[in-house]
Amino acid sequence: MQPQFITIEGGEGVGKTTNLQLIESLLKQNRIDFIVTREPGGTPFAEEIRELLLNKRQEAVDPVAELLLVFAARKQHVEQTIKPALASGQWVVCDRFTDATFAYQGGGRELGFELIEQINQLALAGFKPNKTLLLDVDPDIGMQRAAKRSELDRFESEQMAFFERVRAAYRQRASDDAERFMVVDAGQDLVNVQTDITTVFQEYIDGVTHD
Ligand code: T5A
């Protein structure tokens, strides 16, 4: 069985952290050895870049400068953490990955998909997840949840139009690569969201482990 690289994606407050715990328990029940990691971050160097990206600041951050920092962190993360884990036979579950860049920098910052794809090829040469769980929710609901939880970071302080573009870009990615994406309506009650995730995720695990 080929170790799988799985990512979890979605806009602000969709419940990635909450539902990661469910995915961890499903993997354990299926006796799968795995690590959990996140982006931006996942190594000490990349976590420092995360701080740079998320901290609120007076100076306006140029969108391309932001994009390059995201990929600098990702390259380090892929080479130091993700590929070694997969090579040792472990599955990797990652909270956000390149689809977040298409959504936030491509959609939110309006840099477009083409530039992201060029840098993606340069940095990662086509390396991508085997499966991606997209938690989809109306940004109004997501931001209400995020605001209740903690102080807003640099991205969460954007205007609602930004989050609408992020959502549209995620949905576009999912329809362009329907084989890879599992899309769950995260606007439902948590119990229903988790029932849906359990169904699609267990089906996926069964498909991979019984090949
Ligand atoms: N970024 C990242 C880029 O711009 N480009 C990139 O390439 C990458 C990789 C950090 C930021 O970086 C940007 C995007 C981000 O803005 P992050 O830390 O993953 O990324 O960002 P967040 O979206 O802020 O992640 P969080 O962990 O903070 O939010 P979650 O995990 O989506 O939400 P969670 O689970 O904490 O839930 C939020 C609240 O809602 C409740 C929870 O209990 C919690 O209180 N909740 C629900 N309530 C009702 N019904 C449900 N179904 C609920 N599900 C959760």
Short account of what is shown:
The chain has a five-stranded parallel beta sheet, sandwiched between helices. It has helices at 16-29, 44-54, 63-87, 98-108, 113-124, 139-149, 160-176, 190-209, and strands at residues 5-10, 34-38, 91-95, 131-136, 181-185.
Can you put this structure into words, describing what you see?
The chain has 211 residues and is an alpha/beta fold. It has one domain (5-209): Rossmann fold (3-Layer(aba) Sandwich). It has helices at 16-29, 44-54, 63-87, 98-108, 113-124, 139-149, 160-176, 190-209; strands at residues 5-10, 34-38, 91-95, 131-136, 181-185. Helix 1 packs across helix 8 (190-209), helix 4 packs antiparallel against helix 5 (113-124) and helix 4 crosses helix 7. The chain starts with a strand and ends with a helix. The structure holds P1-(5'-adenosyl)P5-(5'-thymidyl)pentaphosphate (T5A).
Which features does this protein show?
single chain; binds P1-(5'-adenosyl)P5-(5'-thymidyl)pentaphosphate; alpha/beta; 8 helices; Rossmann fold; globular; 13% strand
Structural class of the secondary structure composition? Answer: alpha/beta
The arrangement of helices and strands along the chain is EHEHHEHHEHHEH
Small molecules in complex? P1-(5'-adenosyl)P5-(5'-thymidyl)pentaphosphate
- The mean pLDDT is 96
Low-confidence stretches: none
Gyration radius (Cα, Å) is 17 Å
**Structurally, how many domains make up the residues?**
1
Instruction: Give a short account of the largest sheet.
Output: 5 strands, parallel
* Number of β-strand runs: 5
Please list the strands of the largest sheet in the order they lie side by side.
2-3-1-4-5
CATH class: Alpha Beta
Provide the CATH superfamily.
Answer: P-loop containing nucleotide triphosphate hydrolases
Could you tell me how far the N terminus lies from the C terminus, measured between alpha carbons in angstroms? Answer: 8 Å
Q: What is the count of helical runs?
A: 8
Shape: globular
Strand-residue proportion:
5-15%
Q: What would the CATH topology be? A: Rossmann fold
What would CATH call the architecture?
3-Layer(aba) Sandwich
